[in-house]
Amino acid sequence: LVESLHDLGVRHVFGVPSGGMIDYMDAIRRVGGMKYVLASHETGAGFMADVCARLTGAPGVCFGTLGPGATNLASGVGSALLDRSPVIAFTDELPAEWRGRTAQMGIDHQALFRPLTKMTTRLEQGAVKRTVFEAAALARAERPGPVHIGLPWGLAREPAAAESMSAPSLAARPGPDRRALARLAGLFREARRPLLAVGLGAVRAGVREAIAALAERHRLPVVLTPMAKGMLGEDHPCYAGVLFHALSDRVGETHGQTDLVIAIGYDPVEFNYESWLPEAPLAVIDTVAADVDRDRYTVAVELIGDIARALEGLAALPDGVKGWDFDALAARRRALFGRFRPAGDRLGPCAVLEILREVLPAEGIMSCDVGAHTHLIGQQWRTPAPGLQIMTNGWSAMGFGIPAAIAAKLCRPEIPVCAVVGDGGLLMSAGELATAVREQLAVVFVVLCDADLALIRIKQEKKGYPIYGTALGGSATFTAESLFGIPVMSARDPDRFRSALASAFASAGPAIIEAVIDSREYDDLVLKQDRP
Ligand SMILES: Cc1ncc(C[n+]2csc(CCOP(=O)(O)OP(=O)(O)O)c2C)c(N)n1
After folding, report:
1. Whose CA is closest to atom 20 on ligand 1?
2. Distance from C-alpha of 405 to C-alpha of 512, rounded to nearest angstrom
3. SS3 366
4. Which of 117, 337, 404, 506 is most buried per CB count within 10 Å?
């Protein structure tokens, strides 16, 4: 089993062990170049496997034991499903003679993981490589996602049969259908203001340059989903903003004017088409058919197959600049970013992000959690390339940011890595800080301490309710100078925050910065409508 994973390029296995797993752990210990990483909670192990897969391209691997180990792991596996990561999730399973009987920790793992995975099975003697390789191939096929393999108790101590198979390579996808390509070319010719909407599928297809070239050649605005950040630079003249996140009403001023939306790898798991699509025809370039209400919208053409090859096909479009007002687009972009400029010398979330962006080198990685801060990061954070800002905008689980940063540092030890999390998210995942200590990872954890589940409090007030059940209470999250041995620096003003960041990034181990902020700054920025 362990050799099969190694053949697939797996270098880390994340989990909380069990009596059954220790046999496999010993094999991991003996196979060169592989490591078992002890997580504090199986959900964190799942998130780490998800992020490892995103950053390396090899399947991410995680493990949980029976019952509660598996249910804990399930929350991490969900992110692989809805954030589209090829993850292999292993769990212990009861041996055949105990299935369906009453047993401590015993539940049906096949039933548990069916709705959360692309496939669930269990390992059998004599079919180890075959099962693992088939599972990995399915996990990596479009759209990627998790698979689950149960490890029946006792199997690890049985002799392995010789299986001569090599790890599968990714299957090639078909190029665009010629007639569909011609139809798109016709629609494009007639459209006065086509717009490119770029999503997660485009990130996987690695088509950043092709999108920029298409946009530049015809002067087309480009909108991104939050997880496609980095697919076009924020200072690029065609950049029109991120859908759904902070101040998306300003972004809507652009896409509200289009007469043809060309969706490239657009994945509605991040933001449904119905939440923003204008009354214009939709052209889809993707690996799977679009999930959109076809009674309400016109899907004029779909190019299903290889995204890069479809874009190559569009390179043959005759040159010609479309009818967008690029001065107005530039003015909207300036106004958008102008709204994030921190006011005065208070330390608010905008100032935290602005200062962090100045300090974190361009190639550095920042992960974030889920909350009002995510919506701000989605729009405000300048992301030089895809993969440098890591979020979960499909599964959207609080508690993601800390394990995500840990996985990023394990996969890219030479790059500076930080996490930005809310205090609510910290409370869900603080145990993984101990993982950073165990692994001696120099990760900077910035905790936005507003004593508020801000995103939900804002929704509560928008509905006209009084604040109730959303305040975290207490005036300080950290009352000691260290947590699990990690030094904690507290910052209440921009200068102190900047100096704390400098010493945190200079540290050889993990560091925590408690950024004490007022969550009111979010109120005018997040949860805006995408349409003007
Ligand atoms: C596991 C999970 N539980 C609940 C939610 C719903 N939820 C979304 S944001 C949020 C509040 C987050 O608060 P915090 O971490 O402090 O971040 P902030 O909104 O203050 O930036 C909640 C409860 C969720 N997304 N994930």
Report:
1. 454
2. 13
3. strand
4. 404
Backbone angles phi, psi at 261, to 5 degrees: -100, 125
Q: Which sign, positive or negative, has the C-alpha torsion 372, 374, 379, 382? A: positive
Residue of the CA atom closest to atom 9 of ligand 1? 371
**Calpha distance 256→279 (Å, rounded):** 9
Name the amino acid, one letter, at 182. Answer: A
Ligand 1 pocket mutation, candidates 392, 455, 467, criterion most atoms within 8 A of CB: 455
pLDDT tier, 475 (very low <50, low <70, confident <90, very high otherwise):
low
Tell the residue number behind the tokens 């599972």, with chain if given: 135
Residue with CA nearest ligand 1 atom 13:
453
- What does the pLDDT look like over 306-364, one tens digit per residue? 999 999 999 889 889 999 999 999 999 999 999 999 988 899 999 999 999 999 999 99
How far from each other are the two terminal CA atoms of the chain, in whole angstroms? 54
| Cβ atoms of residues 276 and 254 within 8 Å | no
Which of ligand 1's atoms lies nearest the C-alpha of 398?
26
CA distance 282 to 301: 7
DSSP codes, 279-342: SS-EEEEESS---S-TTTS-EEEEEES-HHHHHHHHTTSPP---S--HHHHHHHHHHHHHTTSP
What angle is formed at CA 189 by the lines to CA 183 and CA 190, rounded to 5 degrees?
A: 95
**Which numbered atom of ligand 1 lies nearest the CA of 370?**
9
Contact present, 41 and 12 (Cβ < 8 Å)? no
pLDDT at 169: 87
Give ∠ CA 363-366-372 in degrees, rounded to 5.
145
Q: What are phi and psi of 240, to 5 degrees?
A: -120, 5
Do residues 242 and 251 touch, judged by C-beta distance below 8 A?
yes
How many Å lie between the centroid of ligand 1 and the Cα of residue 478?
A: 19
| Mutational pocket test of ligand 1: of 370, 375, 459, the residue with most ligand atoms within 8 Å of the beta carbon | 370
What are 46's two structure tokens? 């799942």
- Cα(110)–Cα(265) distance, integer angstroms: 31
pLDDT of residue 491 exceeding 80, the answer is yes
Q: What is the pLDDT of residue 476?
A: 65
Q: Which residues contact 294 (CB under 8 A, 6 or more apart)?
A: none
Q: Phi-psi region for residue 50, left (φ > 0), alpha (ψ -120 to 50) or beta?
A: alpha
pLDDT digits (tens, 9 = 90+) for 122-176: 999 999 999 999 999 999 999 999 999 999 999 999 988 889 889 988 888 889 9
- The confidence band for 259, taking pLDDT boundaries of 50, 70 and 90, is very high
Number of residues assigned to the chain: 532
CB atoms within 10 A of CB 514: 23
pLDDT tens digits for range 192-244:
999 999 999 999 999 999 999 999 999 999 999 999 999 999 999 999 999 99
What is the token pair recorded at 241?
Answer: 């903003």
